[in-house]
Design brief:
6 helices, about 210 residues, alpha+beta, 8-stranded antiparallel β-sheet
Length: about 210
């Protein structure tokens, strides 16, 4: 694959501007194994992502669990646990979803995928992950791959009912509040969002997992 070299290297490409409210970034990772030994590392907790391994082998899981073979096209829900992984001569294209992106594109409550890694075909979504996997496997450059991802996601966005503006605003406010050092408790967060603690619990499970 053009554009990646070295034993471990990641390149980031921004999505199309219309997609940036919903996605964090496209990231393309190359992991080589100079001694034909697996390269091991940890994934930090993060929001949901879909990943397309179009070359090599990878194993992964969550802390305290054994490593298992990862499907070439796999989805990772919002995580609160670090995830160990190992890879051999792997090339992986990944897309990160922000919480408002979950609300836009994923037709499941986020808690159904919290701290879970599985085959991306199990995700209820209008996005054609299969077409993305095909693009990852056949495009000749990272720029071409990102352009194909843009096209597939923009098509899904065009044919998708928009999120209710009030709901979208609440997701954005909650996301910002989670990073605000002034918010130190569940009560603080509920007051910031002007909802009850019971409503906050249901909202958090659905959007944040």
């Amino acid at each position: 694959m053009q554009g990646l070299d070295g034993s471990s290297h990641t390149r980031f490409i921004a999505p199309h501007p219309r997609l940036q409210p919903y996605l964090s970034v496209y990231y393309f990772t190359a992991i080589d194994s100079p001694d034909d030994q697996p390269v091991s590392d940890w994934m930090n907790p993060e929001w949901a992502s879909v990943r397309f391994r179009y070359s090599g082998d990878t194993k992964g899981g969550f802390v305290g669990q054994p490593l298992v073979d990862i499907p070439p096209m796999h989805f990772v829900g919002p995580t609160s646990l670090a995830g160990p992984f190992s890879a051999m001569h792997a090339r992986i294209a990944s897309i990160g979803f922000l919480p408002v992106g979950w609300s836009m594109f994923i037709d499941q409550s986020a808690d159904e995928w919290a701290d879970r890694l599985g085959d991306a075909s199990q995700v209820k979504t209008p996005i054609s992950f299969e077409a993305m996997m095909q693009a990852a496997s056949t495009r000749s450059s990272l720029e071409d791959m990102a352009a194909a991802f843009d096209e597939i996601l923009l098509d899904a966005l065009e044919n998708r009912p928009l999120i209710d503006p009030a709901t979208e605003q609440r997701v954005r406010l909650a996301h910002a509040a989670l990073m605000d050092p002034e918010i130190g408790s569940v009560v603080d967060l509920a007051e910031r969002l002007k909802i009850s603690i019971a409503q906050l619990q249901r909202f958090s499970l659905r959007v944040f997992g």
